[in-house]
Amino acid sequence: MALEYAILVSLLEKPGSGYELARRFDRSIGYFWTATHQQIYRVLKRMEGDGWIEVREVAQEGRPDKKVHSVTPQGHRALADWLREPVEPATLRHGLAVKVRGAAFSDPADLIGEVERHRAAHSARLEEYLTGEARDFPDPASLDDGAALVHVVLRGGIEYERMTLAWLDEVLAVLHRIRAGRAES
Amino acid sequence: MALEYAILVSLLEKPGSGYELARRFDRSIGYFWTATHQQIYRVLKRMEGDGWIEVREVAQEGRPDKKVHSVTPQGHRALADWLREPVEPATLRHGLAVKVRGAAFSDPADLIGEVERHRAAHSARLEEYLTGEARDFPDPASLDDGAALVHVVLRGGIEYERMTLAWLDEVLAVLHRIRAGRAES
DNA sequence: TCCTGCTATGCAACGAGTTGCATGAACAAG
DNA sequence: CTTGTTCATGCAACTCGTTGCATAGCAGGA
Lengths: 185, 185
Known about the structure:
Two copies of one chain form a homodimer.
Chain A: H1 3-13, H2 18-24, H3 37-49, E1 53-58, E2 66-71, H4 73-84, H5 95-102, H6 112-136, H7 145-184
Antiparallel strand pairs in A: 1-2
The structure holds a DNA duplex (30 and 30 nucleotides).
């Protein structure tokens, strides 16, 4: 399980509360590993029990107190160990691919709207990435080590979205062709 | 949940036993939706209860009897309904991306072997896809509707692997550059 | 004033997915 | 003759992930 480690990375980048972590998992780190606040709170508790993180209660004005978590040396070591361990090459689960294959047993034209919906979502995601890249990495040629690593991960996201958009266009072309072929017969 | 529907698609392509389905989920359909035999047997039972599939016991020589499942008209309808429903745009969980970001807090050179391992796995997967494409779609220009849909899904797999390989090479370049920079200081 | 929304944490229950194990018959390799 | 592999189905126990709900203070707008 990688959630523990995703949390360690995020807390090393900047300590924070469970709530703040949940926000980050809606953005940045969340683009590559998703988690809800429930999972996060549960795992934080376990990690605290394991001595990977420590908690400091911080009183705030105008809002509830929060528990700020930070990584202990043991936690840091656990992350370093995990980096050296092999990790399973990402099982992908692509519901849309299942639908495309299923379309052969139904009316393929029914899928066009759905594919366009996905296209719009991926297009928006690509824009987000590109905006973030322009903002955070205006000069990609001169980055320190940490920034270079964050940047290359973002570059992966960008290329993934571009590839996906191109594929969705291919799918749409096939669906339109099938519809045209059926209309004329 | 899409497992039911992935099973429906697979059984519409060809009826089969739970065991045979489990084999298929190691290949073809499994490239886009994974499942273990446990999940499959459990879901098959539920689907039978819902009247989506029907079971016929087939005696075999030299091996245990099997229960061949096939899709009922209700199951077919359930699939058609699902195709029209929106499906969540695939949450991706990329453990390697988490590791790359984590490498900033450890020795990035430790990751090189791991990234190369992934590169080899994706390279092998790409070869599989290309072999399959050459075998099953020697003339992609003239395909019937069903084959065109299967082919476009496979094309997605191919482009995904190509994109991933290019990204892994970028990651390796960054890791090597960091290692070189640290060695000289 | 009331309602909505944000920050902040958490419980309880459920459903999805994994792991380990068991059974039992056939066949091939050593 | 034993061991390992494939075919074939399944139980039990567990972890992971999701959903719904609860609480509670404060801010801002209708």
